[in-house]
Amino acid sequence: MSTSPHSGSGYPSRQNGVVLFISLIVLVAMSLAGIALWRSIGTGVLVAGNIAMQRGAVTSSDAGIEAARAWLLLQTPTVLNNTQPTGYVSSWDNTFDAATFNWNGQGVLVGTDAAGFEIRYVVHRMCSLANSGFNAPNQQCLTLNVAGGSSGRGSGTYGQTNLAGTTFVYYRITARALGPRNTVSYTQTILY
């Protein structure tokens, strides 16, 4: 009886390495999927952080609106008829653009809040002519005329009664909050 050198249980059978090749392809595919997942999670965290910063900036700019409102309530008509060096323009200024406005030179600094946002504001009286009264000749102002007294949120301070026959001039307040990660928020409101 003769035995063949490749037959029997004593010798390993010859392998072609197909399993190793397929394993390497699967390993590369899994590595690429893991990298893509890691990057998408990182991007999601960055987007969530940016949204949180933007919401914080909007909230901070509300402090500028309130500071401007408080300033307006303390001013006399003589002051409000004339443009001030910083923070107040006695006309609506057709060329005003919040993005290009000189906030450091002409805006009023309210302060920096706990979140690190620097808050500034500027007030525009909604009249066509600067440095003149709202009832001056050729003056055009956005106004509200009150025919009778009533209590409401439209008065200068909440809950007080407006005087009958009073004319209120509208004011546009623009506030800017500048903070971490170069986050900028501009908020505008109209008051009378």
Strand content: 15-25%
What structural class do you assign from the helix and strand content?
Answer: alpha+beta
In terms of per-residue confidence, which ranges show pLDDT below 50 for 5 or more consecutive residues? none
Total strands: the figure is 7
Principal-axes geometry comes out as: rod-shaped
Describe the overall structure.
With 192 residues, the protein is of the alpha+beta class. The protein has one domain (29-191). The chain has helices spanning 18-74, 77-80, 103-106, and strands at 88-89, 108-112, 118-125, 143-146, 166-169, 171-178, 184-191. The strands form two sheets. Strands 1, 2, 3, 6 and 7 form a five-stranded mixed beta sheet that branches. It has a two-stranded antiparallel sheet with strand order 4-5. A hairpin with a 5-residue loop joins strand 6 and strand 7 (184-191). It is rod-shaped and about 110 Å long. It starts with 17 loop residues before the first helix and ends with a strand. The mean pLDDT is 83.
